[in-house]
Design brief:
Order of helices and strands of chain C: EEEHEEHEHHHEHEEE
Number of domains of chain B: 1
CATH superfamily of chain C: P-loop containing nucleotide triphosphate hydrolases
Number of strands of chain B: 0
Chains: A mainly alpha (267), B mainly alpha (221), C alpha/beta (228)
Largest interface: A-B, 32 and 30 residues
Radius of gyration of chain C: 17 Å
Oligomer: heterotrimer
Shape of chain C: globular
Number of helices of chain B: 9
Distance between the termini of chain B: 21 Å
Helix content of chain C: 25-40%
Number of strands of chain C: 10
Structural class of chain B: mainly alpha
CATH architecture of chain C: 3-Layer(aba) Sandwich
Largest sheet of chain B: none
Number of domains of chain C: 1
Helix content of chain B: over 70%
Mean pLDDT of chain B: 91
CATH topology of chain C: Rossmann fold
Number of helices of chain C: 6
Low-confidence stretches of chain C: 215-228
Distance between the termini of chain C: 37 Å
Strand order of the largest sheet of chain C: 6-7-8-3-9-10
Strand content of chain B: under 5%
Structural class of chain C: alpha/beta
Shape of chain B: globular
Strand content of chain C: 25-35%
C-alpha cells in the first residue's frame, strides 16, 4: 500500500519536474550567444546521459549484492534488470539527443569522438545483457548468470572508455570540441540544467520502480502457480478413452488419389 | 588441477583432430572473408594495405566466434559438459583446459589469416615480434571472454546466436589495441616497446582474470 | 541423526524455470538400499536423481546425502555420485577409447581399471577404436556404464537404465547394482518397468514432484499390481 503511494508520489513529482524543465528550457532561458536555440539541448542531453550511467551503476551494485552470498536475494536481480532496462532506454536517448545536437553543431550525425564511441559500445553491451536475460532458465540461474554478465560489463566500461580515449588521442587530437567548452553556463541556465538533472533522475527512479513492480508481480504469479501445481498434479488425469475415440475418428488424410495418366499429361 | 585442465585441453584437441572443424571450416571461412573484402573494396591496393590491421582483427574475432560456439557445441551433445561436472572437477580446470585448446586453434587461425593478409593486401611488416606478442595477448582475451559468455549463454535451446552480440562489445578494447599494435608493427622502427603492446597486454591480463573468475559462477547453476 | 552413508531429504522443492519439478519431497534411505522410483511422466523422478547427483539445487528445504549437506555441497556430492541419465555424457567425435581415457584422467584411476570396466561391458574389442557417433544407443549406454563402474560411486543414480540395453546388458547391470549395494552403496533407479523391485529393494511411487503418500515406506512388498 505505502509502496504504491510512494510510487505515485514519485511519478507525479517527476512529471511535474519534467514539465518545469520543458518550460524553463524552452521559454524562460535565453538562447545561447554562440549556438542559439540549439543550446537548449543542454538541459536534456547531459541529464539523460547521467541517468544512463546512474542506471548501470545501480545494476552493477545490485548484481554484486546478488552474487555476494550473505546478501543473495532475487530482489537484487529484479533491481538489476529494472535499472538496466531504463539504462538502455536512456543510453538510446543519449545517442539520439547527441546526434540531434551534433548535426547542426558539427555538420554530421555521428563522429568517432571518444565519448560517442564508448556510449555506443555501452548501448550494445547492455542490449546484450538484456538479451541474455531472455534465455529461458530458472529464476536463480538467470539471476546468477545475469549478475556475472553485469559485473563483466561494469569492469569493461572503464576499459572501453580508456581504450577509446587513447585510440582517439594517440593519433590525432580530440576530434571535436565538446559543446560544454564553448557554452557559458551561468545564472538561469545553470539552474535549468540542475533542474534537468533532478527531473530526469526522478523519471529514472519512477520508471525503475514501475519496472521492479512488474518483476515482483511476475515472481508472485510464479509462486502462486507453485501451489496450484501441487493441487493439480496430485489429481490424476481422467480416463483417456473418450479422447482416444475422438482422435481416431478423423485426422489428416492423404490427398485424393489422382489417376496417374490424368495427373501426368497436360490437358 | 593442472592435470585435469590438461585432460580437458587434450580432449578438445582430439575432438578437433577427429572432426577438423577449425581446419576445414573456420580457417577457410576466414580466408573467404579476406577475399570478399578484396573484391568488395574493389582491390584498391593502397586502401587495403591501410585497413589491413583492423581487417585482420575483425576477421579473427568473427572466425573465433565460430570456434567458441563449436567449443560449447561439443559439450552440449549428449550433455557432455554435465559429464565433466559430474567428475566433481573445479570449473577452473575446465576453463583453463578449454582456453588452452581454443587458444591453440585461434593462433593457427591467426597465422593463416595474417599470411593471407600479407600476401593479398601487401601491407609492410616491420616487427614480427610485436605482431606475435600482441596476437597472443589478444587471443587469450578473446578466448577468456568467449568462454565466459559461452557458458553464460549456454542452454539447450538458444544461445549460439546470442554469443556474438555479447562478446563483440566487450572485446572492443582488444580489437582497438590489437589493431593499433599491427599498425605500429608496420613501421620499420617498431619493436616490442610499443605503447599499444603494453595496453593490449594489460587488457589481455584483465580479461583473462575476468574470464577465470567468471567462468565458474557462469557454468554452475 | 543421519549417518554419513545415508540419504535424507526433508521437504525439498526444486524449481526448474519456475516449475516445481520436486515439491516438498521428504525421503529417508539407508546404506545398502536400492530404491526404485516409479511414477508417471513428469512425476519428478529424473529431477530427484539430478538433485541427488548435485546437478540441481534445492530451492527450498534441505537434504543430507552421504554426509554432504544440500543445498551448498553440490560439487563435493558430484564426486561421490555416479549418474547415468538419458544422455550418455559422451563426446560424439571421440572414440570409445578416448572417451574412457578422458574418464581415466579425470578420475585419476589406472588404465587397467578402465580396461577391466570396458571388458566387462564388452566395448573393449571391435568398438574400442570407433567414434561414439557411429555407435548404437545400446552401445553408447554400455560405454557410459563402463565409465560409471570405473568411478565406482557410492551413490548410483540410474535413469531408465534398461532402455536400449539388451538382455545380457540388463542382467549385467542388475548384478552390478546388487553387488554395489551389498558393499554399502545406495542405488536409485528410475523406471517404468512393472517388475522393478521384484528382486528386492524398495519401491517409491512418485507423483506431482513428491512421494505418493500411500506407497511411501513400502519395503519391497509392493507388487506389480496397480501399475499403469
Amino acid at each position: 500500500m505505502t509502496s504504491t503511494l510512494v510510487r505515485k508520489a514519485v511519478g507525479v513529482t517527476s512529471l511535474v519536474l519534467v514539465a518545469a524543465t520543458v518550460v524553463m528550457g524552452l521559454f524562460v532561458t535565453p538562447p545561447d550567444v554562440v549556438q542559439g536555440n540549439l543550446a537548449r539541448l543542454l538541459y536534456v542531453h547531459p541529464p539523460v546521459a547521467w541517468v544512463a550511467y546512474l542506471a548501470y551503476g545501480v545494476t552493477s551494485i545490485a548484481s554484486g549484492l546478488y552474487l555476494w552470498r550473505p546478501t543473495r536475494s532475487l530482489k537484487w536481480d529484479r533491481i538489476a534488470v529494472a535499472s538496466a532496462e531504463v539504462g538502455v532506454v536512456f543510453t538510446g536517448l543519449t545517442l539520439v539527443t547527441g546526434s540531434i545536437w551534433g548535426r547542426p553543431a558539427w555538420g554530421v550525425w555521428w563522429t568517432w569522438d571518444a565519448r560517442l564511441t564508448s556510449t555506443a559500445i555501452l548501448f550494445v553491451l547492455y542490449l546484450g545483457y538484456l538479451a541474455l536475460r531472455r534465455i529461458p532458465l530458472s529464476a536463480e540461474t538467470r539471476a546468477k548468470r545475469s549478475a556475472v554478465a553485469a559485473l563483466i560489463a561494469f569492469i569493461d566500461v572503464p576499459i572501453v572508455h580508456e581504450s577509446v580515449v587513447w585510440w582517439r588521442t594517440l593519433h590525432q587530437g580530440a576530434t571535436v570540441a565538446t559543446l560544454g567548452a564553448n557554452t557559458k553556463v551561468h545564472g538561469i541556465m545553470a539552474w535549468t540544467l540542475l533542474l534537468g538533472f533532478v527531473a530526469f533522475t526522478m523519471v529514472y527512479i519512477w520508471m525503475a520502480m514501475l519496472r521492479y513492480r512488474v518483476e515482483t508481480m511476475a515472481a508472485e504469479i510464479e509462486s502462486t502457480q507453485l501451489e496450484a501445481w501441487e493441487a493439480e498434479r496430485m489429481a490424476e488425469a481422467g480416463a483417456p478413452d473418450a479422447a482416444i475415440g475422438r482422435l481416431l475418428e478423423s485426422g489428416a488424410r492423404a490427398p485424393k488419389e489422382v489417376p496417374a495418366d490424368q495427373g501426368a499429361t497436360p490437358k | 588441477m593442472i592435470r585435469r585442465a590438461w585432460a580437458v585441453a587434450r580432449k578438445d584437441m582430439l575432438i578437433e583432430y577427429h572432426s577438423r572443424v577449425a581446419l576445414n571450416q573456420v580457417i577457410p571461412f576466414a580466408l573467404a572473408v579476406l577475399l570478399t573484402f578484396g573484391f568488395a573494396l574493389d582491390t584498391r591496393d593502397q586502401l587495403l594495405a591501410e585497413i589491413a590491421p583492423g581487417l585482420f582483427w575483425v576477421v579473427v574475432l568473427f572466425s573465433s566466434l565460430y570456434l567458441i560456439a563449436r567449443s560449447f557445441r561439443v559439450e552440449r551433445e549428449n550433455a557432455a559438459m554435465e559429464g565433466l561436472v559430474l567428475y566433481g572437477i573445479d570449473p577452473m580446470a575446465i576453463f583453463l583446459g578449454k582456453l588452452a585448446a581454443l587458444a591453440v586453434q585461434m593462433l593457427v587461425l591467426e597465422a593463416v589469416a595474417a599470411a593471407g593478409i600479407v600476401i593479398l593486401f601487401n601491407p609492410p611488416v616491420g616487427s614480427l615480434g610485436l605482431l606475435a606478442i600482441s596476437a597472443l595477448a589478444a587471443t587469450l582475451a578473446i578466448g577468456s571472454i568467449g568462454l565466459v559468455y559461452g557458458a553464460l549463454s549456454s542452454s539447450e535451446h538458444s544461445g549460439e546466436s546470442l554469443l556474438p552480440l555479447l562478446v563483440i562489445p566487450v572485446l572492443a578494447p582488444i580489437v582497438i589495441s590489437a589493431a593499433k599494435c599491427w599498425s605500429d608493427a608496420e613501421s620499420a622502427g617498431a619493436g616490442i616497446y610499443d605503447p599499444w603492446l603494453k595496453i593490449v597486454s594489460i587488457f589481455g591480463a584483465v580479461f583473462l582474470a575476468v574470464g577465470a573468475a567468471g567462468f565458474g559462477p557462469a557454468m554452475e547453476d | 541423526m543421519p549417518a554419513d552413508d545415508s540419504v535424507s531429504f526433508s521437504s525439498v522443492t526444486v524449481t526448474l524455470a519456475g516449475f516445481p519439478a520436486l515439491l516438498n519431497l521428504s525421503l529417508e534411505v539407508a546404506a545398502g538400499e536400492t530404491v526404485y522410483l516409479r511414477g508417471p511422466n513428469g512425476a519428478g523422478k529424473t529431477t530427484l536423481l539430478r538433485t541427488l547427483a548435485g546437478l540441481e539445487k534445492a530451492t527450498r528445504g534441505s537434504a543430507r546425502v552421504l554426509g554432504v549437506g544440500l543445498p551448498g555441497g553440490e560439487r563435493s556430492l558430484r564426486a561421490l555420485a555416479g549418474m547415468m541419465g538419458t544422455r550418455s555424457h559422451l563426446y560424439e567425435d571421440l572414440t570409445v577409447a578416448e572417451n574412457l581415457d578422458l574418464a581415466r584422467r579425470l578420475l585419476a584411476v589406472s588404465s587397467s581399471r578402465i580396461d577391466d570396466a570396458a571388458e566387462l561391458f564388452g566395448v573393449r574389442g571391435r568398438l574400442w577404436r570407433q567414434k561414439v557417433a557411429s555407435l548404437s544407443a545400446g552401445q553408447k549406454r554400455r560405454v557410459a556404464l563402463a565409465g560409471l563402474v570405473a568411478k565406482n560411486p557410492r551413490l548410483w543414480l540410474l535413469d531408465e537404465p534398461h532402455s536400449s540395453l539388451d538382455a545380457a546388458g540388463r542382467d549385467l547391470l542388475d548384478k552390478l547394482i546388487a553387488e554395489a549395494t551389498k558393499r554399502g552403496a545406495i542405488a536409485f533407479v528410475a523406471t517404468h518397468e512393472a517388475e522393478a523391485g521384484r528382486a528386492g529393494g524398495r519401491v517409491v511411487e512418485m507423483v506431482g514432484g513428491t512421494v505418493r503418500p500411500a506407497a511411501s515406506g513400502g519395503g519391497g512388498d509392493s507388487g506389480p499390481e496397480g501399475l499403469e
